[in-house]
UniProtKB/TrEMBL annotation, chain A:
Keywords: Autophagy, Cytoplasm, Isopeptide bond, Protein transport, Transport, Ubl conjugation. Belongs to the ATG5 family. Residues 263-288 are annotated as: Disordered. One of its GO terms (biological process) is piecemeal microautophagy of the nucleus. Conjugated with ATG12. Conjugated to ATG12. This is Autophagy protein 5. It comes from Salix dunnii. GO terms for cellular component: Atg12-Atg5-Atg16 complex; autophagosome; mitochondria-associated endoplasmic reticulum membrane contact site; phagophore; phagophore assembly site membrane. GO terms for molecular function: Atg8-family ligase activity. InterPro entries: Atg5, ATG5_HBR, Atg5_HR, ATG5_UblA, Atg5_UblA_dom_sf, ATG5_UblB.
UniProtKB/TrEMBL annotation, chain B:
InterPro entries: Atg3/Atg10. GO terms for biological process: autophagosome assembly; autophagy of mitochondrion; protein modification by small protein conjugation. Keywords: Autophagy, Transferase, Ubl conjugation pathway. This is Ubiquitin-like-conjugating enzyme ATG10. Belongs to the ATG10 family. Pfam families: Autophagy_act_C. Gene3D superfamilies: 3.30.1460.50. One of its GO terms (cellular component) is cytosol. GO terms for molecular function: Atg12 conjugating enzyme activity. The keyword Ion transport does not apply.
Length: 342, 214
């Protein structure tokens, strides 16, 4: 078992959940609920944990659970950890969310009928991943009902051992050939990737000064499989991002600041030379050079709460940091100057 | 014009999609009976998509085609495109989008329906608007089903005809033709053929003339 994958599965976001003021009918108002939400989980699945805190104060009516963060309605089908990485540039702990049991914003969010909807969405993504990897969804479609339930339950319970057992039947495999983790070798093929690109106009020095996301339109969602052609070559996370976002990596610099690489200057030099020797000198040299021509600047790349070094083998990233529906979710923050926005 | 190879798997590349979509809109335009027209819509957060708006009054429909390049830097980062059409039946309006899915490598039909006051229609109401043959098509192509999902670029819930079976039935549809089976199906006719099936689900017919090769 891969250790990092275990960390991902055990990862949780401490939430401090406030009931929206319009739904408070009692005095004094209920205190916020403190809850640990699994990274790989989904917000609606927290209902049984949250409900007891607020049930006595809710106005009459039917429950339709949804959450917002600083007024932004949260898309329930995005894994909780990804929402946190995306919307909290400077991680806020605990993460203050507002819960609503009434007034579902059905013009903005797709409907959610509780666990059934979440499960359906999960299986749907799994099917999509199956199609990307195998060219059809037969593995998922032909899964027996009980296997499907078992797989879903392992995700709900965060039980990695059980998950590995039941998902191995899907033959979605790991993105490796032999010893791939050591040499970064990746078989030619397609990797299911969901990319969230958050564009900001103002520059900021520290992440805590980053503007908030107040509208989903500020985030481009790019759902495009990554095709790997370079067989047997050292394929890095940098190569992958260059492939997915060519406009930001067109032979230019990647990070000119600290956020992505938490290492000393010397270490950076060494590693970029390493990369240079295996992927061609050009790439290596340019990784840490000046900002890009068009002034667009990558501020942050975050996967499962970490800002990985860009020289690490992409196969390691996929195998360890992907979510249980076999998609790798990557959050990217890009600064785009205002002039360009028109 | 290119053909898919005889061992074709029923999918198409983003470039082929663009070619086929242009042929589709062109032919749609030429057959005035098949109004409204389709037009390219530039989505602020994604590549252009093909769109059409429809209203059912007098069976007249109007669509336009416009193409714009990506407007912001991250445009074009996804190879998706959308075909949009709107339809309005008495007080019911329909918008249709055809979006290229990079995962399934096929076109996907998205649509939404609303009343003149802007109130969205629920699937129950929509089903009443759909032609009788719709449920039959949905059954026959057993993989097509309508779900409410998020529009890939608009951050809003739209109805969607699920694409996971599209490549399978497109293969059956296109390779059933003898000429096509020998030479490989024409890339440019992909959208016309595809829409001849999915259009039926939402009550939009493809005129016979459109299917003819030139």
């Amino acid at each position: 078992m891969m250790e990092a994958q275990k960390y991902v599965w055990e990862g949780a976001i401490p939430l401090q959940i406030h009931l929206h003021e319009s739904e408070i009918t009692s005095l004094p108002p209920p205190p916020p609920a403190l809850i640990l939400a699994p990274r790989i989980g989904y917000l609606p699945l927290l209902l049984p944990l949250i409900k007891p805190y607020f049930s006595s104060t809710l106005p009459p009516g039917q429950d339709t659970l949804w959450f917002d963060y600083k007024g932004l309605p949260l898309k329930w089908y995005i894994p909780t950890g990804v929402l946190f990485d995306l919307l909290c540039a400077e991680p806020e702990r605990p993460w203050n969310l507002t819960v609503h049991f009434r007034g579902y914003p059905s013009n903005l969010l797709i409907p959610c009928e509780g666990e059934e909807s979440v499960k359906w969405s999960f299986i749907n993504s799994l099917k999509e991943a199956d199609y990307i990897i195998n060219g059809n969804c037969k593995n998922v479609m032909n899964m027996s009902q009980s296997d499907q339930v078992e797989l879903w339950r392992s995700v709900m319970d965060g039980n990695l051992d059980k998950y590995i057992r039941s998902s191995s039947k899907l033959k979605l495999g790991t993105v490796t050939t032999d010893e791939a983790d050591m040499v970064g070798q990746v078989k030619a093929g397609k990797i299911p990737v969901r990319l969230y690109v958050w564009s900001v106009n103002e520059d900021f020095e520290d992440l805590e000064d980053a503007p908030g996301v107040d509208n989903w339109d500020q985030i481009s969602y790019i759902n495009r499989p990554l095709e790997i052609h370079k067989e047997g070559k050292y394929f890095t996370l940098h190569d992958a991002l260059k492939n997915l976002l060519p406009e930001f990596f067109a032979g230019k610099s990647l990070i000119n600041d600290k956020p992505c690489i938490e290492e000393s200057e010397d270490a950076q030099k060494v590693s970029s030379e390493d990369v240079g020797s295996s992927t061609g000198a050009e790439d290596g040299k340019e990784i840490f050079s000046q900002p890009m021509e068009n002034d667009a600047e990558i501020k942050l790349i975050r996967i499962q709460g970490i800002e990985p070094k860009l020289e690490i083998p992409f196969s390691w990233v996929v195998n360890n940091l992907k979510n249980p529906e076999h998609f790798l979710h990557i959050c990217v923050c890009v600064k785009i100057p205002n002039v360009k926005a028109a | 014009m290119g053909c898919f190879s005889p061992s074709w798997d029923g999918t198409l590349s983003p470039k082929d999609f663009s070619v086929a979509a242009h042929v589709f809109t062109e032919r749609w335009e030429r057959n005035k009976s098949a109004s409204p027209s389709w037009f390219w819509v530039n989505s602020p957060k994604g590549p252009p998509l093909l769109a059409s708006s429809q209203h059912d009054c007098n069976e007249e429909e109007s669509c336009t085609v416009e193409e714009e390049a990506g407007s912001c830097e991250i445009d074009g980062a996804a190879d998706n495109a959308t075909l949009v059409q709107s339809k309005h039946h008495e007080a019911h309006y329909y918008d249709f989008h055809i979006v290229y899915s990079s995962s399934y490598r096929v076109p996907v039909l998205y649509f939404r329906a609303y009343c003149s006051d802007g109130r969205p229609l629920l699937l129950n109401d929509i089903e009443k608007d759909l032609p009788a043959c719709s449920s039959k098509v949905l059954l026959e192509t057993k993989w097509s089903f309508i779900t409410l999902e998020e529009h890939p670029f608009l951050n809003r819930p739209w109805y969607k005809l699920h694409p996971c079976g599209t490549s399978e039935w497109m293969k059956l549809l296109c390779l059933g033709d003898e000429v096509a089976a020998t030479n490989g199906p024409a890339i440019e006719l992909y959208l016309v053929s595809w829409f001849s099936v999915v259009g039926q689900v939402v009550g939009l017919k493809v005129p016979l003339e459109m299917v003819k090769s030139h």
